[in-house]
């Protein structure tokens, strides 16, 4: 098309325009409105008024510091455990999988096409106080006789880990799989021991995947509330629970909006720190080729 | 110097022989660990499939009571389930088409055309992925409240397209990065103009990536609960239905639907794997170009 | 004692309450007047119709019977034929009026439902709903905010005639113009007799350390706090705000100490069926069903007294088929129809004559004290002023970890 050929420079902007417009309208603009809401004051009975009310932020932090800290703690733990479970699994599939690589990967992914809620509900059944898991653990002695798994921090963290595990496994697998076998051979020639090869060749090459995986796990984990709701007690309440209830049940919009921004800001801080440590290129997924 | 290097050569060899048994053990441990991890992943699915056969006494379906095939005869027996599923499917289909189209265009622009503010755009597209779903859902609700727009089917659709765009862009982009432009150049040498090249060469070649992105978007849309919950009004989608039903008694039908989704997806992906294998085999057979 | 004397006692209690509160009510109304001025101003700014008190709500005009009706309700709150998965009452309504009823079980919790529909109702949009069923305190709030329409009682002869005296005249809607009871229920102790080692009789059994981590309470503030107040020997109908707050503090402490496992809506049925909880606060309709399904589950009306609640039907503003909705309300006030509903949902019917019909058909239902309770021990929760209510609700939400 000669029109486009003549105006080559316009093409990228034309391609970007619709998608960008959608994101601007339905991502950025809502954030503006939420910011506005967080500075309002009032209740649904008295009406909301924009009043530069920064108090909702300070109140929110004061009232919900426990939940905020807890969310980051749970998110961090879930990410670490996901790494501990996911990395060896990804490694095994990438290097030991052979012909079965794709099939195994399939087994990893497919459970996550079952609705999130139903998966979590079935954990409720598995971990119930009189179920075989708890009975087995009590028998072996790990759990006290009147101990339980459900309605504990362990259950909530386990649930979060489970639900975001493939977000860790897939990126790690992707970078492990890309490792050229010849690099490993060279590593053996250079360093000799398997451990050295692992730490000096495999791990660094897998780093981008690990970085992506940990972010993709940590970010949603921090904002999750379903696991806390279904598997926990009020003592496991996370910031997501509070935001959800403030918005949808108590219609306390200013507090909820303030909390949302606080959460987002804190997550961004963590992401930026992490990016600093590992380099922004691997963050964006743009290959430095 | 020579003695040292000789020692350096001998030591690792001896080291390796001693560790031979240890290595075998390590291998087995790794395999066992991986097997356990897989089991852990699949355990809840097993429970779900199992409970779809549960024969609940009375109204509450929480403990295993007995095996029955009756539930499978009436997968939509629970009132409201069918409508919720239909809603979910409709929204997923529509939002997938829109998001894939928009996202693919953006990915093309980002990878192929250097322009100013590319890095900033990249970051902007990344932002929704970095935002917790609670915040995304709540922010959209703020917008709809502020402009007094009633939440319902349309708002759910808007929300789903919004978060799917970023996923599509990321997926298609990673596919485009390794793309070999020489094929396009060849087509243009043969006389095709830009548009024809795009339709006949580029699109078919990036199709797998686009398809993968579309599948991902579809799955994310069907499964979305948090953002939908904020913006659904009185429309019920399948996850919302499950949430409501879970409060009272989880009818076996829900497990049945979940099992069906699981198996359908499993089959679809098996087919893709088989198809990939076949394609690989065929390209192996085809003679190498000179 | 015959049933009529029970109702008489209740009526007497109501009358006593009404006169005792008159001064307080006056003050409340004045305060509400000032509030509603501001409210009207706000609503006017939003371009909505005026709403503020019962007198302001629009009376439903006469119209034709519509072809469809949308009815939003709680789950398991209407009779279902388990063979066909149809709802007989709705089918009968269709046969009589030709209207197809769309029944949506979207209400799981009052606060949650309110948060969900508030925005729409605010704009005069019912979201397609012609009827919703909410607990009395929320019905009062809906009316205060102008979210519901006024009935034309001439179109509801059955309702006028057959409504039980006990629920005919609550303080927030003395003429039953904006709400009509659907069912009532009791808040009871439900427990696993195989694990408690005996019968539980007192609300304070829930605080027994023996059951630590195996107790659940309700997210409905009035049900939980009212019960705890009764356990303290305080009548929830006369409680002061400070007493309520103290009760909430007790609950919060128990939760923090791990005594209370969690706070639930209907999902307590899951925990106790599985044995994850052992002693809980629950609702009478569920109790009937749980006991029928599981011989290890038992209930008890606490010796200190129990809370009752009434869920009422209302017609939201902007309902597309408001006139037909009135017919639905009237329809279920026929004793025959009500008997069928009660037989299935096992809650307390608000319709005179239902019990007599059940006496012949299902005597075990007619004799069941959960369905036809002795109201001498029943208590309501006081209607606090809006500010106090907000404060108590906020404290409770914090206590239950929201």
Task: Annotate the secondary structure layout.
The complex is a heterotrimer of chains A (289), B (290) and C (402).
Chain A: H1 2-6, H2 10-38, E1 40-43, E2 47-50, H3 55-96, H4 101-109, H5 116-126, H6 132-140, H7 153-178, H8 181-191, H9 194-223, H10 226-231, H11 239-248, H12 253-278, H13 280-284
Antiparallel strand pairs in A: 1-2
Helix pairs in contact in A: 2-12, 3-7, 3-9, 3-12, 7-9, 8-9, 9-12, 11-12
Chain B: H1 2-51, H2 70-73, H3 81-112, H4 118-130, H5 133-146, H6 153-177, H7 182-189, H8 194-223, H9 226-231, H10 238-248, H11 252-285
Helix pairs in contact in B: 1-11, 3-6, 3-8, 3-10, 4-6, 6-8, 7-8
Chain C: H1 3-20, H2 22-45, E1 68-72, H3 88-97, E2 100-104, H4 110-122, E3 131-135, H5 136-144, H6 157-162, E4 180-192, H7 193-196, E5 215-218, H8 221-231, H9 241-256, E6 260-264, H10 268-274, E7 279-283, H11 284-293, E8 297-300, E9 306-314, H12 322-332, H13 335-345, H14 354-361, H15 363-366, E10 378-379, H16 386-399
Parallel strand pairs in C: 1-2, 1-3, 5-6, 5-7, 9-10
Antiparallel strand pairs in C: 3-9, 4-7, 4-8, 4-9
Helix pairs in contact in C: 8-9, 9-16, 13-14
Global shape of chain B: globular
CATH level 4 superfamily of the largest domain in chain A = MetI-like
String of helices and strands of chain A: HHEEHHHHHHHHHHH
* CATH third-level topology of the largest domain in chain B: MetI-like fold
The overall average pLDDT of chain B, rounded, is 78
| Helix/strand class of chain A | mainly alpha
Shape annotation of chain A: globular
| Sheet of most strands of chain A | 2 strands, antiparallel
Question: What is the CATH topology assignment of the largest domain in chain A?
Answer: MetI-like fold
Strand residue content of chain A: under 5%
In the CATH hierarchy, the architecture of the largest domain in chain B is Orthogonal Bundle
Rg from alpha-carbon coordinates of chain A: 24 Å
What's the CATH architecture of the largest domain in chain A?
Answer: Orthogonal Bundle
Strand order of the largest sheet of chain A: 1-2
């Amino acid at each position: 098309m000669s029109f486009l050929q003549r105006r080559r420079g316009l093409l990228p902007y034309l391609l970007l325009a619709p998608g960008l417009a959608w994101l601007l309208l339905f991502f950025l603009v809502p954030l503006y409105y939420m910011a506005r809401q967080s500075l309002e004051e009032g209740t649904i009975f008295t009406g909301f008024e924009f009043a530069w009310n920064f108090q909702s932020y300070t109140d929110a932090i004061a009232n919900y510091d426990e939940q905020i800290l807890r969310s980051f703690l749970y998110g961090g733990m879930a990410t670490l455990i996901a790494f501990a479970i996911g990395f060896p699994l990804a490694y095994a599939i990438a290097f030991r999988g052979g012909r079965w690589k794709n099939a195994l990967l399939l087994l990893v992914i497919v459970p996550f096409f079952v609705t999130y809620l139903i998966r979590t509900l079935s954990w409720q059944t598995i971990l119930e106080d009189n179920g075989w898991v708890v009975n087995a653990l009590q028998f072996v002695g790990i759990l006290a006789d009147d101990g339980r798994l459900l309605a504990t921090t362990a259950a909530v963290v386990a649930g979060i880990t489970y639900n975001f595990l493939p977000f860790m496994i897939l990126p790690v697998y992707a970078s492990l799989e890309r490792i050229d076998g010849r690099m490993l051979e060279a590593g053996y020639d250079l360093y000799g021991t398997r451990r050295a090869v692992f730490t000096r060749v495999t791990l660094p090459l897998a780093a981008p995947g690990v970085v992506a995986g940990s972010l993709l796990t940590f970010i949603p984990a921090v904002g999750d509330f379903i696991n806390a709701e279904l598997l926990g007690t009020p003592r496991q309440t996370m910031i997501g629970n509070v935001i959800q209830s403030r918005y949808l049940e108590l219609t306390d919009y200013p507090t909820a909006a303030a909390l949302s921004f606080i959460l987002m800001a804190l997550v961004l801080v963590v992401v930026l720190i992490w990016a600093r440590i590992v380099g922004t290129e691997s963050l964006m997924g743009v290959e430095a080729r | 110097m020579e003695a040292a290097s000789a020692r350096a050569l001998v030591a690792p060899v001896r080291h390796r022989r001693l560790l031979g048994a240890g290595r075998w053990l390590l291998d087995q441990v790794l395999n066992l660990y991986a097997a356990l991890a897989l089991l852990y992943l699949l355990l809840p699915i097993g429970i779900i499939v199992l409970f779809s056969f549960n024969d609940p006494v009375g109204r509450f379906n929480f403990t295993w009571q007995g095996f029955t095939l009756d539930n499978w005869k009436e997968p939509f027996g629970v009132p409201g389930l069918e409508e919720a599923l239909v809603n979910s499917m409709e929204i997923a289909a529509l939002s997938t088409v829109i998001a894939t189209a928009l996202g693919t265009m953006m990915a093309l622009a980002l990878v192929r055309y250097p322009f100013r503010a590319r890095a900033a755009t990249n970051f902007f597209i990344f932002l929704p992925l970095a935002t917790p779903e609670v915040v995304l859902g709540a922010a959209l609700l703020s917008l709809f409240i502020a402009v007094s727009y009633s939440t319902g089917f349309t708002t759910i659709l808007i929300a789903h397209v919004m978060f799917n765009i970023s996923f599509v862009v990321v997926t298609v982009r990673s596919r485009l990065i390794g793309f070999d432009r020489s094929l396009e150049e060849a087509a243009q040498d043969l006389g095709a103009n830009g548009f024809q090249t795009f339709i006949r060469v580029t699109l078919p070649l990036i199709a797998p990536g686009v398809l993968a992105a579309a599948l991902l978007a579809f799955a994310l849309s069907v499964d979305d609960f948090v953002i939908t919950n904020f913006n659904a009004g009185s429309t019920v989608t399948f996850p919302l239905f499950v949430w409501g039903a879970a409060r009272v008694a989880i009818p076996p039908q829900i497990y049945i639907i979940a099992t069906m989704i699981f198996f359908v997806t499993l089959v679809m992906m098996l087919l893709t794997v088989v198809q990939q294998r076949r394609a690989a085999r065929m390209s192996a057979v085809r003679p190498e170009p000179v | 004692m015959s049933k009529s004397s029970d109702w008489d006692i209740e009526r007497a209690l109501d009358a006593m309450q009404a006169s005792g509160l008159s001064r307080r009510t006056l003050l409340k109304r004045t305060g509400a007047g000032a509030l509603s001025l501001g409210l009207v101003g706000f609503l006017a700014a939003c371009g909505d119709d005026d709403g503020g008190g019962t007198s302001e709500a629009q009376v439903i005009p006469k119209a034709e019977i519509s072809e469809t009706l949308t009815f939003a309700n709680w789950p398991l709150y209407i009779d279902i034929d388990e063979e066909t998965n149809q709802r007989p009452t709705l089918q009968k309504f269709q046969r009589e009026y030709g209207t197809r009823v769309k029944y949506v079980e979207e209400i799981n919790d009052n606060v949650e439902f309110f948060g969900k529909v508030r925005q729409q109702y605010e704009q005069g949009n019912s979201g397609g709903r012609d009827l919703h069923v909410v607990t009395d305190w929320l019905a009062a709030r809906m009316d205060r905010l102008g979210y519901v329409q006024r009935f034309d009682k001439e179109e509801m002869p059955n309702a006028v005639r057959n409504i039980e005296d006990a629920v005919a005249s609550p303080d927030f809607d003395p003429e039953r113009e904006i709400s009509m009871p659907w069912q009532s229920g009791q808040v009871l102790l439900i427990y696993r007799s195989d694990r408690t080692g005996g019968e539980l009789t007192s609300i304070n059994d829930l605080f027994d350390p023996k059951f630590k981590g195996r107790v659940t309470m309700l997210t409905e503030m009035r049900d939980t706090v009212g019960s705890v107040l009764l356990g303290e020997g305080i009548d929830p109908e006369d409680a002061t705000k400070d007493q309520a707050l103290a009760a909430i503090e007790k609950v919060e402490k128990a939760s923090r100490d791990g005594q209370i496992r969690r706070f639930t809506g209907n999902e307590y049925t899951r925990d106790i069926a599985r044995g994850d909880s052992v002693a809980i606060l629950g609702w009478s309709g569920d109790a009937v069903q749980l006991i029928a399904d599981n011989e290890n589950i038992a209930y008890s009306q606490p010796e200190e007294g129990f809370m009752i609640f009434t869920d009422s039907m209302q017609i939201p503003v902007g309902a597309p088929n408001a006139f037909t909705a009135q017919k639905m309300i009237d329809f279920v006030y026929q004793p025959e129809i009500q008997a069928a509903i009660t037989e299935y949902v096992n809650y307390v019917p608000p319709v005179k004559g239902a019990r007599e019909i059940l006496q012949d058909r299902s005597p075990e239902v007619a004799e069941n004290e959960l369905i036809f309770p002795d109201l001498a021990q029943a208590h309501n929760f006081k209607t606090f002023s809006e500010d106090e209510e907000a404060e108590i609700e906020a404290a409770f939400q914090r206590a239950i970890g929201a």
